[in-house]
Write a structure and sequence with these properties.
It contains 10 helices and 58 strands. It is mainly beta. Helix 3 packs parallel to helix 4. The radius of gyration is 33 Å and the shape is globular. The two termini are 39 Å apart.
């Protein structure tokens, strides 16, 4: 292949994305590392998204095959120079599956939403001052299988949609003008669960910049433990894992401090460590403290551990972690104790999705969901069946929930053992975590093989944390001679209430709890089961064959002291796994609350069972029925001593409260009101009333919180409901609602209807049994007022204004739009006379035109003259369609610039400078030529990069 063929083929392959546009550092060598604490930057902006797969090219020919096998030579859509200019701009978190229509030929368990393969691309710019730092990419969650390329080199493959990926970009990064290509291919056809899992980069992404000598990600373990044999009541055995990506061994001082948000600094200790180049070290420090405020579910007190490393007086890196002082223990006969006080586990199982947003759940919605669970009386959460986001774990610490942290894949193979240990390493500082679960309902649980597998997985957990027990959720195999129960510290039983006593008798030394129970069916606002309509009544009569009603499941737990507590399946409805009905049902109805967090009758049942510090009195059903005189079943849910029902002021009977089964009456319907009164010690404590609502006349919008922050991330759900002329909620309203918004964005819609096929994105969705939900998000930097209006024909519109508070901008990694680097140029022989700018090398010219890349100036010439340089390229599709710019970021010398032989701009000043020129709309390949007028002895050329981009 001669130079002429190389010129043609290389340009063509680059334009097609089949060869990378390699970027060179030029004169920018490694800079001295800047000492100082880390920068943690969000990487949620600048992403471009393609919905579908892009097949890799079939590699042909020896030269192409040779080049494609090299580092930096990713092919197709993974190539650095691939044209993504017309891809869809998106921000993270991004669950692309939540945007898909619900279609019958898609997977039922995934909520009838099609998944598939998608691509994400981004372009990052690191400053020259970053050169020498340790640069790490953190991807908090990608569903499901992900392949990651950076600057054309494959840097990671990940096989789980639930664990984070940490990638050291330092060896591959470029700086200054030399932008960096980040590409992620996501295969969401791969499924790990039998519920809605979403798809795409659905959690946050980050760039973390650190000194070469630094604390590794998740590298501080600081969980307090009692220390009766030491000088204090408690100690925090701090373990700090260090890394050195630099070139010299470094001796550092490692310091840890314990801080109280009210008192200040409580304790500080330090130690020395030496970290070898490209090596690591572990430093250990004991922080001592007396009489701490204990973390509990009612008073979740948190402390801060600040850890940093010093070289002399220079702080190289720093990280803060939170911790909580608490004790826990399981007693085989009496259950669970927190801080030596008996505590019955009143837990729920939840998946991570929410109405409208799928699995890309904003922090504000996470907070809403946890506050709803607190109101319920829940004190523990089982995250089924996978790791959760960092934000959710932090929120559990703040709100005071005990967490059963669960591993996804039951397999001690190295790849899955690494996922399990990542979970433990990341979450072991959380005081909320009190159990590590290695599996859920595995067929091998009753076998010797299952036992051997759990032995290994349990040991892997305890290599990292011995302060919490290991468990597994078993739904079978409890009584085989050798099973998983023999390999865990605490046994979790799924369902099988009839086996509790037998298991306790057979294994009197093993603590036990209900890791999953109930699986009852309820459709919010429905009080008659209708299989044709695919709805289940909310009286707590319907349950799965393997489960029980809410009342019976809790009674079996509450009446047995040795059962430490239980986890209801589930706290909220969730997308996918529709049960007991299938199409058009596309979400579950197991929840105590629906997909939006609106309560069902189960909410008041569990409040009555769980809440001890305030009176509870729930009343179902609504009091809007068609036929006067028809018998209506009424249920009261109370934690008081007696309840009495009144129908239109007349008593229907007073009953002693049944704390497990609740209280029921059957009364004839008459428009008006039903009222239930709760008594303790013979005194009226609380009254709850349901009135017959009139025809709806208006809509009403209610906010979850008083406002939002203008950071572009803060979000909250708003409730919309239909009301009658007296302002009463209308429980049967099903109106289609249209939303208009300014000063914010709508990111999701919901109504809790498991059978709805309406999209959860956009600006329209129906009410379901009186309620709907719209999730709004602030716009970055736009403080002021968010205004939202809800309308439907025939009813008065609802308007809501939310103040949006100005806040300090979040720190983001710098990204750039889709740009095309022109880095494969040719230079003609120097000429003393002005050449034709459209001049080309002859086809048989193998020597005169020389290939070069921009980044350094051409050497001075011996005499005045002209120098012609040219590049052939095919602009990105968007430039061809709408026009664009060519940017010479650094050009020295006077010159004229031609596109396809037509003059498009000049530079009259010989001093170094930038030059930006317009590119016109035109399809196909182009030739860009630069004619320099050169003076003897003066350098000229491209001292920086040349790139093109679209106008917008």
């Amino acid at each position: 292949m001669n130079r002429r063929d190389l010129f043609k083929s290389a340009s063509a392959l680059v334009a097609m994305g089949l060869l990378p546009q390699t970027v060179f550092a030029g004169a920018n060598g490694p800079q001295a590392a800047v000492a100082g604490p880390r920068e943690t930057l969000l990487l949620n902006k600048g992403w471009r998204f393609f919905d579908g797969d892009i097949p890799f090219p079939t590699i042909m020919g020896h030269g192409w095959t040779y080049n494609a096998a090299k580092a930096g030579s990713a092919q197709g859509a993974a190539a650095t120079g691939y044209d993504d200019s017309e891809w869809t701009p998106v921000s993270l978190p991004h669950d692309f599956v939540s945007f898909q229509p619900i279609v019958e030929d898609a997977n039922v368990s995934q909520g009838y939403r099609k998944r598939g393969i998608v691509w994400y691309r981004n372009t990052l710019r690191f400053e020259k001052a970053d050169n020498g730092k340790h640069i790490e990419l953190q991807l908090d969650g990608i569903a499901t299988n992900a392949t990651v390329w950076f600057n054309g080199t494959l840097v990671a493959r990940n096989w789980s949609g639930y664990n984070s990926v940490y990638i050291d970009l330092t060896p591959y990064a470029t700086y200054g003008d030399l932008v960096n290509s980040l590409v992620i291919r996501v295969d969401a056809n791969a499924m790990e669960g039998w519920w809605y899992e979403g798809g795409g980069i659905y959690r946050d992404a980050w760039i973390v910049k650190r000194n070469p000598v630094h604390i590794v990600t998740d590298g501080v373990f600081a969980h307090p433990v009692p220390a009766p044999q030491s000088r204090a009541d408690w100690k925090i055995p701090v373990e700090v894992t260090l890394n050195n990506s630099g070139t010299e061994a470094t001796e550092v001082t490692v310091v840890s401090e314990l801080w109280d948000d009210r008192v200040g600094l409580l304790a500080t200790e330090k130690t020395q460590a030496t970290v070898a180049p490209l090596g690591g070290a572990v430093a250990r420090i004991d922080l001592l403290h007396n009489r701490p405020r204990l973390w509990s579910i009612d008073d979740p007190q948190l402390y801060t551990v600040r850890t940093y490393i010093l070289k002399g007086d220079t702080r190289l890196d720093e990280i803060t972690t939170t911790c909580g002082f608490r004790t826990q223990r399981f007693d085989v006969d009496k259950g669970f104790f927190l801080n030596d006080k008996h505590l019955k586990i009143q837990g729920v199982c939840i998946h991570q999705d929410h109405a409208g947003v799928g699995v890309a759940v904003p922090d504000g919605v996470i907070d809403f969901r946890l506050r709803r669970l607190k109101e319920l009386g829940c004190n523990a959460i089982r995250f089924s069946h996978n790791a959760q986001s960092r934000a959710l774990m932090d929120a559990c610490d703040r709100h005071g929930f005990l967490v059963m942290a669960e591993n996804r894949v039951f397999n001690p193979a190295p790849i899955h053992m690494a996922e399990l240990q990542w979970l433990v390493r990341r979450d072991r500082n959380h005081p909320s975590v009190y159990l590590w679960s290695v599996f859920n309902e595995e067929p091998m649980q009753g076998t010797e093989a299952g036992y051997q597998m759990v032995r290994r997985m349990s040991e892997a957990v305890k290599e990292l944390d011995t302060s919490r027990p290991v468990t597994a959720a078993m739904n079978d195999g409890l009584f085989t001679p050798l099973n998983v129960a023999h390999a865990v510290d605490v046994v979790g039983i799924n369902y099988q209430q009839d086996q509790y006593d037998a298991f306790h008798k057979a294994h009197p030394t093993i603590p036990v709890f209900s890791s999953e129970d109930t699986s009852a069916f309820m459709t919010r606002g429905v009080y008659k089961t209708d299989k044709d309509k695919r709805v289940s009544a909310s009286y707590d009569d319907d349950a799965a064959d393997w489960g029980a009603t809410h009342r019976k499941a809790w009674k079996a737990i509450a009446t047995r002291d040795y059962i430490a507590g239980g986890f209801v399946w589930t706290g909220f409805d969730y997308h996918g796994e529709p049960t007991p009905y299938i199409w058009p049902s596309n979400s579950s109805v197991f929840g105590i609350m629906d997909l939006c967090g609106f309560e069902k009758a189960a909410f008041w049942i569990h409040q009555a069972q769980w809440v001890k510090d305030r009176p509870v009195l729930g009343l179902v059903p609504h009091w809007n029925w068609e036929t006067a005189g028809q018998p209506v079943r009424v249920m009261a849910c109370s934690n008081q001593e007696e309840v009495e029902l009144f129908v239109n002021g007349k008593s229907a009977g007073r009953q002693k409260v049944d704390p497990y089964e609740m209280n029921f009456w059957t009364v004839p319907y008459a428009p008006g009101a039903i009222e239930v009164r709760g008594y303790t010690g013979g005194k009226l404590v609380r009254t709850t009333r349901n009135e017959t609502a009139g025809e709806p006349v208006a809509l009403r919008l209610n906010a979850d919180r008083a406002g939002l922050k203008a950071d572009g991330r803060d979000a909250q759900p708003l409730t919309v409901e239909a009301i009658d002329k007296k302002g009463r909620h209308v429980p049967l309203a099903q109106h289609m609602i249209t939303y208009e918004i300014s000063g914010g964005a709508i990111i999701g819609l919901g109504n809790g209807d498991a059978n709805s096929l309406e999209p959860e994105k956009g600006d329209k969705r129906s009410l379901y049994n009186g309620y709907g939900q719209v999730i709004v998000q602030s716009l970055e930097g736009q403080a002021g007022t968010l205004r939202i209006r809800a309308t439907t024909p025939g009813l008065k519109a609802a308007d809501l204004r939310l103040p949006v508070e100005a806040t300090a901008p979040l720190a983001y990694q710098v990204t750039t739009p889709s740009v095309q680097l022109l880095d494969s140029w040719f230079i003609a022989p120097m000429s003393v006379t002005r050449p034709d700018p459209g001049q080309k090398a002859a086809d048989n010219d193998m020597n005169s035109w020389q290939w070069f890349r921009p980044g350094t100036l051409n050497r001075p010439l011996d005499q005045d003259g002209y120098s012609l340089v040219a590049v052939r390229y095919t602009p990105y599709a968007k430039v061809q369609k709408v026009g664009g710019k060519v940017e010479f970021l650094g050009i020295t010398g006077t010159c004229e610039v031609y596109e396809n032989g037509k003059l498009i701009g000049t530079k009259a000043d010989a001093a170094p400078g930038a030059l930006t020129l317009d590119l016109q709309t035109q399809s196909g390949e182009r030739r860009l030529s630069v004619l320099f007028k050169v003076r003897a002895g003066e350098a000229y050329g491209f001292n920086r990069q040349i790139r093109t981009r679209s106008k917008d």
